[in-house]
Amino acid sequence: MTTDLHTDDHRQGFIALVVSLAEAAGPDGMTLREIRDRLDERAFGLMILILAIPCLVPALYGVPQIVGIPILLLAGQMLVGREEPWLPEAVLKRSVSKAWLDRMAEFAVKRMGWFERLSRPRLAFFAQGWAERAAAAFMILATLTIVLPMTNTVPSVALTLLSVGLIQRDGLFVAGGAAVAVGWAAALATVAIGVFLGAGWAAGLLTHFTG
């Protein structure tokens, strides 16, 4: 009998999803294709969450610049309405080790339980349909700021809230993540404008005294 891997149960939390991957993996782990298929339409949210978790470390440099590209690729596909993530065939064939899946499951159980306890299906109109595309746009906005040196933690929080919101069908988390993404982008823009205007003022003052 053939088992259909596309059996997404929205009542199953994201921690249980990660644990189920580790439990289902054989000694050689799982290919990315198998992981994608088991996660079904929530693969977008969970894959982005997994990529965002390391970027929660304050003042991290290097990792955000690396994971930013696949996050943008995944969010871009959500934005145009793809039902499951597309990845090149060579990438889909790559295996994720059993040890790595076990570590991810352990991290999810020990460190992310409070996310799951606080999130639940609510305000569904913010977490499905057109709202998924809107969430993807906010993910792109957050990712464009996550790659800036020393500014990774706040946009990573936005990505985490957005991802968990989509996985758990929690519109409140999605709205919260969107607010953090917009607020952080606005704060960076304000600082950039202030620096630009301040530099222009200083240059004008210097010209006045030396001209």
From TrEMBL:
Pfam families: ExoD. The chain crosses the membrane at residues 43-63, 135-162, 174-203. InterPro entries: ExoD (IPR010331). PANTHER family: EXOPOLYSACCHARIDE SYNTHESIS PROTEIN. Keywords: Membrane, Transmembrane, Transmembrane helix. It comes from the Bacteria. This is Exopolysaccharide biosynthesis protein. It comes from Brevundimonas vitisensis.
